[in-house]
Amino acid sequence: MKIRNYAATVISALLSVTLASSALAQSYPTRPIRLILPYNPGGIVDFVGRALAQQLGSEIGQAIVSENRAGAGAVVGTDAVIRSAPDGYTLLLVDPALVINQTLLDPKPYDVFKDLEAISIVSSAPNVVVVSEALNITTTQQLVAYAKANPGKLNYASPGVGTTGHLGAEMFKLRTGIEATHIPYKGSGGAFPDIIDNKVQFTFASIASALPFTSANRVVAIAIAGDRRSPVYPNVPTLEEQGFANFAVDTWLTLFAPAGLPPEIRDKLNASVNAALAKPELKAQLATIGVEPRGTSPAEAAAFVKAEYDKWRDIIVDAKIKTN
Hints:
It is built from twelve helices and eleven strands. The protein is an alpha/beta fold.
C-alpha cells in the first residue's frame, strides 16, 4: 500500500510539473521583451536586430524592444543579458565577437557555454575580400603572388582587434604563408578611404560595409569568404573556388537567452524566430545588405557556436594574437 501511495504521489507531482510548464509556455510572453544589441546603432547587428524585432513581435504577440548596449566589443551588452533573469524577457543578438572574446580577452569576460543558451542562428553574412584598385589585382592568387613578390609592403585593414575582419585576414596569412601588417580601425568606415588611396591594400569586410565602395568601382571585390557566392556579388567567386577549401569568415548573428531558460519558453521563442525569418518581407529587407536569414533548432545553433569557438580559438593561438 505504501509503495502504491508513493507511486501515485510521484505521478501526481510529475503531472503537476508538466501542466505548470505547459501553462507557462502558453501564457508567455505577458509583457514586452527586451532585445539587447551590443553595438552602437547603424551596424549589421543593429539593422538585423531591429528588422527581426518587428517581425518577431507580430509572431509572438508582444512588442520586442530593441536596446543598444555597446561597449568593450560586445562584452557590455552580453554581460547585461547574462545577469538578467532567465525568463525569456531579455534576449541577446550577437555576432562572432561572442566566441572570439572568450579566447582573446584575459581574464575571460564570461563562459558562453555556461552563461548563455542559444535559441537560433538568425542570419549569415560571409565576408568579402576587397583590395585596392591600384594593385590591379582581381583574384586571391594574384594577391598572394603580389605579397610574396613584395615582402613587408602589404597592409590589411580590419574594424578592430579580434573582429572577423582581423581574424579572417590572419587565417588567410596562415594558410598562404604571406606577410601583411594589421592596421586596425574603429569600425569599417575609416578603412575604405585608405584602401582607395592604397595606404592599406586589402581587407576582409562585411558585404554591407563594402557594397557602397565596390558599387562605385573605388575598390575591387575579389572573393567571397563563404560556402557559395553571394547574390550581391554573383560574379565574385568564393575562396573555395579559388583553391582555399573550408575557408569561411562569416558575420553570423545568433539569438541567445540567459542560461537556465525554461525549455518550454526556449522552444516557443525558437518557433517564433524561425517563423519570422521565413517571412518574405524580412528576407527581402536583409537581402539589401547581403544578409541571408537562417533559422535553426537550439541544438543546431549551440553546435554551430561551439564549432566557431573552436575555429577562432585555434586561429588566435596559432597567429599569437593578443589584445595589447
